[in-house]
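ERR on first pass: missing label on line 2. Operator R.T. fixed the label and resubmitted. Corrected input:
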Amino acid sequence: MEYRVGVIGGGQLARMMIPAAVNLGIDLKVLAENAGSSAALAATEVGDYLDLETVMAFAQTVDVITFDHEHVPQAILHALVEAGHDVRPGPDALLYAQDKILMREKLEQLGVPVPVWAAVSNADELASFIADNGGHAVVKTPRGGYDGKGVRVVSHADEVADWFVALAEDGNGGALLAEERVDFSRELAQMVARRPSGDMQLWPVVESVQRDGVCAEVIAPAPRSAGRVADVAADIATAIAEGVGVTGVFAVELFETTDERLLVNELAMRPHNTGHWSIDGSTTSQFEQHLRAVLDLPLGATGCRDTWSVMVNVLGGPVEGTLADRYVAAFADQPTVKFHNYGKAPRPGRKVGHVTAGGDDLDQVVFEARAAAAFFQN
Amino acid sequence: MEYRVGVIGGGQLARMMIPAAVNLGIDLKVLAENAGSSAALAATEVGDYLDLETVMAFAQTVDVITFDHEHVPQAILHALVEAGHDVRPGPDALLYAQDKILMREKLEQLGVPVPVWAAVSNADELASFIADNGGHAVVKTPRGGYDGKGVRVVSHADEVADWFVALAEDGNGGALLAEERVDFSRELAQMVARRPSGDMQLWPVVESVQRDGVCAEVIAPAPRSAGRVADVAADIATAIAEGVGVTGVFAVELFETTDERLLVNELAMRPHNTGHWSIDGSTTSQFEQHLRAVLDLPLGATGCRDTWSVMVNVLGGPVEGTLADRYVAAFADQPTVKFHNYGKAPRPGRKVGHVTAGGDDLDQVVFEARAAAAFFQN
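pass 2 clean. output:
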């Protein structure tokens, strides 16, 4: 037999599955939005993931369907399952990544700690939530937001008046998600892989440093996390994985509050930016593990290869030219750092690559990773 | 700018360049002998590397030409250089990998220790060599041999009578290479990367365990090599790299004699089986380093990621079915081992994959690697 995995979406997550697929001799096919996608090196078909026929035809060519993103509509996901295709993660799990209000309801059912929240359908409900929560709210559009898009911190309901107008026009009786502004000391992330059989493997919990709502750096493992923090993060992620029935790799983004609680912030039902360090820093990368998990193969070990791994995103990239233009200088300066170029044109704020450093001295590792990434900015 | 590397030959060495090319955003093109080659995932053109026009057209599409094997004829290599293409390694360096007699002459010129040898044109010369060297000789065809093919250990000249007949029929006035049967305790290999500018990086010397003339296992670093053995191996490889003007990654295969000398056995002007451990065991893999070197980019660090790395080849593969058929059992048994499947159909003696284990306890690491590889045999 041969294993054939189909990935819907041709972004950097699909791209980073290619090395793992090559190593394991897995036939990787990508359904990309357009030609010249980040994952274009894999056998790539260009087509619209919103088109049922396109997706169904693509599914015929592989053994299992998985995803570079969470935007495939539920109707298409269910049609795939009904036609007998293995879809991992499945529509029920993806639903919670697609709708933040359903996700909050599910997490509450599972007894997982989350920020205080409410689904608010109009300005009055939001005003009332703000009044009850110290004069602030974090308001999120339940669908389609990512990397800080669709998130506003407000102290007056009229700061999201446009979103309420859009809701009313949508006519589906939807609501916005309002959450307390959590007083957190830092953000953490727990990555997990789960097979259809239920077997799981967890990487160590990591610290994620955000700038402008976008992941900028990840430190693995999270400093000062040994013991209680690691255990609680693992318990939360395990409860969600089992409760939601995730298959494949998924990420739980967490707040560590100033009073030392962990609260779930977001879920991602796929390999995630906070797991990129694992390519160079763990025995099994999140991308290899995702392929193993969706194929229902035994999972790999998730130990750290270095005392500390630090991943720094290359956001935007050079103002002029390409990332490759900076290789001579960057490689000469940081011979131990691992460079990852997503093959995307530089554009302000866009994730175009990342670098990972590893070693025993955290200050030194942070310095090396930042120094390496800095070559690709400005 | 973007970097574009063209690889002539579509075997597993080209295949294992793909992950490094994906990570670094290097555009990798392969000129393969046939469709469905081991490197087929890369942008692959099928064509004959013996055909000048095919190779010249391929070279137009890339910035630098490099190789999966050493069989491209000198006339074609020189034509590429004359047309202004960067060919790395160049024809002069490749000549020594293509002709073992020229290689021995060059090594002697460089003052590098080699086994006692002679170019023998007929049975009388060989008989005389055998008489002078303890009644034995290792006889090699100067061109085209690999993995134990084209090598015979003889005590009578008539044991290679067929090769002398072939030489005579060839009519080019060639000779066979006769070497003393070296009394060696083990075989070592020293991998080096060299840029056109002359900068070099060496991995630690490794021990290579051969079975039936084929590399079966590699231990990195070679046990009991710290100090003198490592220094001498590095000096030999450095002298050859500079003396021959190699660019890219190359391997020096060495005998460690029972009286503790190192003698050069063979050269390979390309990534090599004795360097596969570096994918999982070194900060920079030989494949990433080869791409850096042929593009004249600064080289990466070559430190070990584990105290010990052990690579075991999967030779032949399963008698029935594919390597992938054994994944469930192998992955479950060895969760820390890294598996590499070359996407080639199993066939007796064929290198179809390898596994690498790493850790602090050499006995345990050897056990894990052998146990993992054993799942793919029989």
